[in-house]
Design goal:
The complex is a heterodimer of chains A (239) and B (104). Chain A has 239 residues and is mainly α. Chain A folds into 2 domains: 178 residues, no CATH class; 45 residues, no CATH class. Chain A contains 13 helices and no strands. The longest helix of chain A is centred in the middle third of the chain and has 24 residues. Chain A starts with 15 loop residues before the first helix and ends with a helix. Chain B has 104 residues and is an all-alpha fold. Chain B folds into 2 domains: 35 residues; 58 residues, no CATH class. Chain B contains 5 helices and no strands. Classes of the chains: A mainly alpha (239), B mainly alpha (104). Chains A and B meet through α3, α5, α6, α7 and α8 of A and α1, α2, α3, α4 and α5 of B.
Chain lengths: 239, 104
Amino acid sequence: MTVVTEGRGGAPCWSVAGLVEGAQLAAPAIPVMVIFGAGFGTIAVQKGLTLFEATLMSALMFAGASQFVAAEIWSNPKTVAGIATLVVITATVNMRFFLMTASLRPWLGGLPARQTYPALSLLTEPGWLIATRYRNEGGADSAILLGSGIALWLTWITGTVLGYLLGVFVTDPARYGIDLIMPIFFIVMLVPFWRGPRNAIPWVVAAAVALLTAEFVPGGWYIIAGAIAGSITAGVIDE
Amino acid sequence: MNSLEPLGLGVLAIVAMAIATVLMRVGGFWLMAYVPLTPRVRRMLEALPGSIVVAIVLPVIVKNGPVAVVAVVAAAIVMILRRNQVLAVAAGVTVAALVRYAAV
């Protein structure tokens, strides 16, 4: 078993037990990942991706929002310009990962690259929130990140294949509330990060900037704009 | 469809998108090696989880209207009371389904 150190995180370490614990911590996210992955598989059929392409996308990209966008314009000709467009859109939609892994530097910075970069390559919002919460509660074992990453990655691929083959939720996801599962899931994951109203000031700023950007700027820029605004707010207050 | 060419280009596009995604994933961590971790920088990094989640979710909730608001509030309440993610997500989804059913 992993020894959990006192206070807000002891000296960073890496162990096989941490891998297993990471996979266990990811368990609550697994139903949601299957459903969301199946959603992508279903859309992939409709947009003309082959099963091979859809599965490869899930295995190599492992980034739901950008995969949905890519599927949306998949039928466009794969010219140099067409592929460049896909890459630029993907980079924009996934720019938030840049901020997410930046936030892991204080914890993982001292570890060797072989213990950090593979785990970072499998990072998603659920995995990142699980690991960050674990660290906030005093955990030190960085293998958590890889353990949860692998568990979520396998789940995502499985969901994609199931959705592609069965088209499970194609009929009417809204009727069962399943279309709202992602926002619901994210809000639930946010609850343990609540530290009182003062620390929520950056959240309010992030929300306002994201809403305004979503209203006036096309594309996926609102996430990155809101996140940076919230982060800067946290840096400016408390002086 | 007619030859290996379209398949090859599709795979090429996927690999290119995957490289862009991985660069985003490792880029932030790599860059922060060169930024001194002052107390201010730490505060900025610690505010990221909440800020990113709120920025992702709020526009989606607003787009989906009152049903999404009610569902998310219900899920948050269950999470605060029970600290059980699966239960809370199930509650939120159920509430969304019920509100829509009642509204029809």
